Amino acid sequence: MKKRLPTIFLMILFAILMLNGYGVQRFPKPEFESGYLQPETLQPTSRAEILGMLDVIVLAVSMAVVTWLVLKKRSRTGVFWASLFSLAYFGFYRQGCICSIGAIQNITLAIFDSSYGLPLTAIAFFILPLIATLFFGRTFCAGVCPFGAIQDLVSFKPQKLGTRLNTVLGLIPYIYLGLAILYAATKSDFIICRYDPFVGIFRFNASFGMFIFAGTLLVSGIFIARPYCRFLCPYGVLLNWISRFSWKHMTITPTTCIQCRLCEDSCPYDAIDMPVTDKNPESRSTTIRKLILICFLVPFLTVLGGWTISRMHETLAGVNGKVSLARTLLQPEKPTDQPEQVEVTAFKSSGIPAARVYAEASVVLKHFYIGSWVLGCFLGLAFGLTLAFRMVTTYQPDYTPNKGTCYSCARCVDYCPVGGNELTPDKT
Known about the structure:
disordered N terminus; 2 strands; 428 residues; 58% helix; two-stranded antiparallel sheet; mainly alpha; disordered C terminus; 2 domains
């Protein structure tokens, strides 16, 4: 049966692609190269609203089904088939738009710009997975997100990276999330959409650079399971935080762990915490010294991060169109044989005085200065807390999934010889 899975999947995918030609494009493809701005839609059509609600319904039902498969049925096979459906629908049919990852930018822009009309679909796609994660762990990642599904298909020989390398690479999503929020809040750019590696694959129109980027992720995904999810996804940062407080969460064994160690190497994401059987692995004096160090280190790294990134605010602001135009106007006249930039030509034809451009750019720079301080403090705090958690050792008698980094994919449950199906609420 397992040998027939790829063939069956290709047949389903072909059928979805054939139906895609009859679909309605509810979310226009973003255009970043030509300079053309999409006109604002004042009143969406009723059909577009209905189809948008259909997306939300499919999202909610998919999360409910995957959660049931993970927590109740404990079925890796069921999760696999659910992920194929999500890849076909949210990926190739809906062409990766709208997605929970990109919705971070819509939510941020709506918070900082009251004139921005936030689509209800964006709100739903942002909030629903977070709510589901708070109650049941990261089942959205397990079988609903098309980005995770497409990476799972190529994960043939996943290798372990080790705790230290996982920790270092795991800080990259915090940087990505912070920059995405900064640029969206300052109305500079939607970098998550601009550098989305898989949307071009879903739409069959990826540029050469993005095709290479996506191809690199997929090829590396053969040996490093879900590289985008683990080391790039900004939405995964939020899911990681919330999942740590989840009411119920997938467990490797449905009852009591018998320490058979069969699951020890089953997780391709290094998300299984090994047992720590000694309740007091360190002396009291060592514990106190670590606590003092953490209390000093975390605030210090937070302030240091804010100060460091704030020194870079002018460089970061270069992405903003107003700042870029102001810098271009301040430059000496270029030789006549060099073509004039489109932005400069549009500015000259508009009749707007240069002083106004400089004033607007100055305001943007101030916003970037404040935002850079916040971004730096956020990154410093994330780095400091990561070090703090690495220094703390807690008693743990069983092999358990790490509630933050576990994707609830249910791979490990197949390795557990203990019987039983139903998962009891996690009280930890």
